[in-house]
């Protein structure tokens, strides 16, 4: 296990991270339970077979993180994630898929997911992702985020740009600088160095940004910055 993972683990609360698995394929659910069930830092508290079951499962099991498939019958993972994020104290969501298209990633992040994993991701990397998301760190690296926001566009870009500019216009100059730096995929340390502030100050700005912009995580700040810069 790498030093980065150990550092994240040291920040975790002592009780295990409560995990809810959501997938319509019983073999996938069984496989995830087998792979993750022996991890001391995790506790699998329940399962659901589609997005329609997620609200009741969350009420019953109170998970910290929901590991959820995107494509499911009745209610898919994207809709379920959006519904969860409307709650006052929602669990974090990590989306699972067999396809890694830019469109899927973008839709998952806009739905409020804190991360995106392929189903064939090695177990150790899934555990690492769960630990990072639990610690408040989106699992997309700055490089992946930068590639995503620079290369993905859709027909709704003009309307999103107007909305993004309006939202960013509500921020102070310093807050906008932090938001745009996040949009460039920079880490907290890189932002602190560039803007001549401490890392704790950067984190405080990010907390205020999330509250002011009504967003769930820093990846959504990056997407907002991307929308504001769309041609």
Automatic annotation (TrEMBL):
Pfam families: GerE, Response_reg. This is Two-component system response regulator. InterPro entries: CheY-like_superfamily, NreC/VraR/RcsB-like_REC, Sig_transdc_resp-reg_C-effctor, Sig_transdc_resp-reg_receiver, Tscrpt_reg_LuxR_C, WalR-like. It comes from Kutzneria albida DSM 43870. The modification 4-aspartylphosphate is found at residue 69. Keywords: DNA-binding, Phosphoprotein, Transcription, Transcription regulation. It comes from the Bacteria. Residues 18-134 form the Response regulatory domain. Coiled coil: none annotated. GO terms for molecular function: DNA binding. GO terms for biological process: phosphorelay signal transduction system; regulation of DNA-templated transcription.
């Amino acid at each position: 296990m790498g030093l980065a993972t150990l550092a994240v683990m040291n920040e975790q609360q002592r009780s295990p991270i409560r995990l809810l698995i959501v997938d319509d394929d019983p073999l996938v659910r069984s496989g995830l339970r087998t792979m993750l069930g022996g991890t001391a830092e995790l506790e699998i508290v329940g399962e659901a077979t589609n997005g329609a079951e997620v609200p009741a499962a969350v009420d019953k099991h109170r998970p910290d993180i929901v590991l959820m498939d995107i494509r499911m019958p009745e209610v898919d993972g994207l809709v379920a994630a959006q519904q969860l994020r409307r709650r006052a104290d929602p669990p974090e969501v990590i989306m699972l898929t067999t396809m890694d298209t830019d469109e899927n990633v973008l839709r998952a992040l806009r739905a409020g997911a804190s991360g995106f994993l392929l189903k064939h991701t090695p177990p150790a990397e899934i555990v690492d992702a769960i630990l990072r998301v639990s610690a408040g760190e989106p699992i997309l690296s700055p490089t992946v985020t930068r590639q995503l926001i620079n290369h993905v566009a859709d027909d709704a870009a003009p309307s999103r740009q107007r909305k993004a500019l309006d939202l960013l216009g509500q921020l102070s100059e310093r807050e906008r600088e932090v938001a745009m730096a996040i949009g460039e995929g920079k880490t907290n340390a890189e932002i602190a160095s560039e803007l001549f502030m401490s890392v704790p100050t950067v984190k405080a700005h990010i907390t205020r940004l999330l509250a002011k912009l009504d967003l769930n995580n820093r990846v959504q700040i990056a997407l907002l910055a991307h929308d504001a810069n769309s041609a």
